[in-house]
UniProtKB/TrEMBL annotation:
Organism, as annotated: Arenimonas malthae CC-JY-1
Lineage, broadest ranks: Bacteria, Pseudomonadati, Pseudomonadota, Gammaproteobacteria, Lysobacterales
Pfam families: His_biosynth
Entry keyword Isomerase: yes
Keywords: Amino-acid biosynthesis, Cytoplasm, Histidine biosynthesis, Isomerase
Name assigned to this protein: 1-(5-phosphoribosyl)-5-[(5-phosphoribosylamino)methylideneamino] imidazole-4-carboxamide isomerase
GO BP, sorted A to Z: L-histidine biosynthetic process; L-tryptophan biosynthetic process
Gene3D superfamilies: Aldolase class I (3.20.20.70)
Major subcellular site: cytoplasm
NCBIfam families with a match to the protein in the record: 1-(5-phosphoribosyl)-5-[(5-phosphoribosylamino)methylideneamino]imidazole-4-carboxamide isomerase
InterPro entries assigned: Aldolase_TIM, His_biosynth, HisA/PriA, HisA_bact_arch, Isoase_HisA-like, RibuloseP-bd_barrel
CDD domains, A to Z: HisA (cd04732)
Gene name linked to the record: hisA
Catalytic activity: 1-(5-phospho-beta-D-ribosyl)-5-[(5-phospho-beta-D-ribosylamino)methylideneamino]imidazole-4-carboxamide = 5-[(5-phospho-1-deoxy-D-ribulos-1-ylimino)methylamino]-1-(5-phospho-beta-D-ribosyl)imidazole-4-carboxamide
Record family assignment: Belongs to the HisA/HisF family.
Length: 249
């Protein structure tokens, strides 16, 4: 039976829990919660996984959340997938040695697919999550921006996802950037397409989720997980209710 995983998300910038709108660093909302305390609350609510993003590193490089990560791993039972600022193999190894369950690789996976594809084989498909975050251009093609979504991309989602699927990619996190932080619902057409095109890849939906109905809809679209951020932070969606929908029937 296929599992469906809820990933509560904590995005950190300057030590604070934040959410951006459509990846725009100038459109930031800060929340009063402490990142560690929030993670502990998610764990108490029943979460098994946490999606942790270093927004400072996503733009400037150099992962900054190692102290937080160490406390997460020592003080909770959460499995953690985390990224932001992965620029080379040393960054991947450092995160894995720190106890990360999956390293999230975004811009580098777009810019240097040959290198990253080799890491999928070297470290194992269960240790890597690719974040192929996408924006639709005026011609209807799904492009892949890089550098914390601040630079437009020329590469196309279809082509790159196919190349990674061919080398055994298992975990693909795909955000429709236009829906990120907008509470407008996930792009179900995009996820249906990805899940049908790459049936051996476990797709994680991200961007736009606002309620339990969206959690259910992403599952029915074929996704194997969903990342929940703003809806949880603003109390629009209760994590226990989302987790209940993720349990096998």
């Amino acid at each position: 039976m296929n599992t469906y995983t809820i990933y509560p998300a904590i995005d950190v910038r300057d030590g604070a829990v934040v959410r951006l709108v459509q990846g725009d660093y100038g459109r930031e909302t800060r929340y009063p919660a402490d990142p560690l305390a929030l993670a502990k609350q998610y764990a108490a609510d029943g979460a098994a996984w946490l999606h942790l993003v270093d927004l400072d590193a996503a733009r400037a490089g150099g992962y900054t959340l190692a102290p937080l990560l160490a406390r997460l791993k020592s003080e909770t039972r959460l499995k953690v997938q985390t990224g932001g600022g992965v620029r080379g193999e040393a960054d991947v190894e450092a995160l894995l040695e720190a106890g990360v369950d999956r390293v999230v690789i975004g811009s580098l996976a777009v810019r240097e697919p040959g290198r990253v594809a080799a890491w999928v084989g070297r470290y194992g498909a269960d240790r890597i999550t690719l974040a192929l975050d996408t924006r639709r251009d005026d011609e209807g093609r799904w492009r892949l921006p890089v550098h914390g979504w601040t630079e437009p991309g020329e590469k196309e989602l279809d082509v790159l996802a196919a190349a990674y699927a061919d080398v055994g990619l298992r975990h693909l996190l795909c955000t429709d950037i236009a829906r990120d932080g907008m509470l407008s619902g996930p792009n179900l057409d995009l996820y249906r397409y990805l899940c049908a095109r790459f049936p051996r890849v476990e797709v994680q939906a991200s961007g736009g989720a606002r309620d339990v109905a969206d959690v259910v809809a992403a599952r029915e679209a074929g996704c194997r997980g969903i990342v929940l951020g703003k809806a949880l932070l603003e109390g629009r969606l209760a994590l226990p209710g989302a987790l209940a929908e993720a349990r096998p029937c």
